[in-house]
Write a sequence for this structure.
């Protein structure tokens, strides 16, 4: 297999968001979970998105995993590697975006890395280096309350600068508006000035086209799926389209047991609203008792949740959620520690997912990036074929590989999807 674009995603929902975007813009794409084992059979594709769960782990570990993925992608012919980060720049002052960009840049010869997390379809734009989420500066958006990486600074030059070994430059709106050559020149100047990375502005799809073409002149870039779309369009414009749109197994409906479940660990405003709507539309819902998990361990909570689900699963979809309001999350974190709470809840939801699949569930919707990572890892999944789009950033995923190849899934970023997302996803997974 020889690929045209290699991608490393720092979480699994972000990876499926990117895979969806590449597919929509003309690249046959597969999403792998980690670096694939050598004997895993992958379809003939133009792009591979290697998903890592590296957003909220120690920076040195994130670097090691990302470099392993980069080696695998380059060995398969990738001329350009996109490091897929969150469109809300989820990270802390310790990393992991800066350290991974530094390592990928050094590996690829030192050219300044173009960085842009804009995703206009979901309301993320960058202007003068400031990130806006649905028209609100990042630090005023719901991301200020994220359980693992509260985003309290909207200036990405500053945010990335605090995580990086070298200074960070800005490629402002006025330069991006001038076009590809102007952006290439700005990147060259940034390199001469010693900047290892440059935040580029983009508020509309046409800016992402410019950035995609400019980025393709170098070996590495970093951004969200908007930049992925720009890169895909640039590749197709330069080299022409290839093959059929997608491996046919990705879109062919599969026989299903009819058993379906939704697991939510995201505490985002969007997910909490989607749960509220699901509750009023007749989906059986169970709220997990997070305090009980923290006080007495997860086993009894998991076992009670599975008993509850098994009693209902033949009648219709079930929804099990740990999601809570930011005040409740903060209270829990102040007594037990943020990462520790997150980890315990993720492990509980992963164990519940395992039990549900053992009970015959073959349609599974997961809300939350870290939550999705924990579930996919627990199930031992190896790769996904990318199906139709459910909502911007969220495709139908058909499992491929040795484990659970009958499973159809949606991995939803906490922030994505409209109010009716869960019912829409379930109608498309079958
Ligand atoms: N009630 C809760 N209290 C504290 N943390 C929680 C609670 N429910 C879920 N979490 C944790 O919050 C984090 C949510 O992150 P994630 O799954 O990535 O969602 P998102 O996509 O919204 O970022 C996870 O680590 C999850 O375990
Ligand atoms: O770019 C995005 O916003 C998403 O693709 C993404 O990475 C979401 O992360 P989570 O909100 O943690 O799922």
């Amino acid at each position: 297999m020889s690929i045209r674009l290699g991608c490393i995603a720092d979480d699994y929902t972000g990876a499926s968001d990117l895979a969806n975007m590449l597919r929509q813009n003309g690249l046959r794409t597969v999403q792998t979970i980690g670096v694939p084992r050598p004997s895993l059979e992958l379809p003939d594709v133009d792009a591979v998105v290697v998903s890592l769960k590296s957003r909220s782990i120690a920076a040195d570990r994130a670097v090691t995993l990302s470099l392993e993925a980069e080696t695998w992608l380059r060995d398969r012919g990738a001329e350009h590697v996109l490091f897929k980060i969150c469109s809300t720049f989820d990270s802390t002052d310790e990393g992991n975006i800066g350290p991974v960009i530094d390592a990928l840049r050094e590996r690829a010869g030192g050219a300044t890395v173009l960085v842009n997390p804009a995703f206009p379809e979901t309301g993320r734009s960058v202007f003068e280096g400031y990130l806006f989420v649905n028209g609100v500066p990042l630090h005023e958006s719901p991301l200020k309350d994220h359980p693992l990486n509260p985003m309290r600074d909207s200036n990405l030059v500053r945010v990335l600068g605090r995580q990086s070994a070298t200074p960070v430059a800005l490629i402002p709106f006025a330069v991006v508006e001038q076009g590809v050559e102007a952006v290439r020149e700005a990147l060259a100047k940034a390199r001469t000035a010693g900047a290892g990375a440059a935040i580029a502005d983009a508020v509309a799809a046409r800016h992402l086209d410019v950035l995609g073409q400019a980025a393709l002149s170098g070996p590495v870039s970093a951004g969200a799926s908007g930049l992925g779309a720009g890169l895909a369009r640039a590749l197709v414009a330069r080299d022409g389209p290839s093959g059929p749109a997608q491996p046919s197994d990705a879109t062919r409906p599969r026989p299903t047991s009819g058993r379906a479940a939704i697991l939510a660990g995201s505490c985002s405003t969007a997910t909490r609203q989607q749960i509220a709507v699901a509750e009023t539309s007749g989906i059986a819902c169970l709220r997990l008792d997070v305090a009980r998990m923290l006080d007495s361990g997860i086993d009894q909570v998991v076992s009670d949740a599975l008993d509850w689900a098994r009693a209902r699963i033949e009648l219709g979809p079930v929804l099990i959620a740990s999601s809570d309001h930011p005040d409740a999350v903060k209270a829990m974190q102040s007594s037990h520690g943020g990462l520790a709470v997150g980890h315990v809840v993720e492990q509980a939801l992963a164990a519940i997912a395992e039990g549900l699949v053992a009970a015959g569930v073959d349609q599974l919707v997961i809300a939350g990036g870290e939550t999705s990572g924990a579930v996919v890892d627990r199930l031992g999944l190896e790769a996904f074929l990318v199906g139709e789009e459910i909502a911007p950033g969220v495709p139908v995923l058909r499992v491929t590989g040795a484990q659970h190849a009958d499973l159809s899934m949606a991995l939803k970023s906490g922030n994505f999807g409209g109010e009716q997302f869960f019912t829409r996803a379930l109608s498309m997974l079958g």
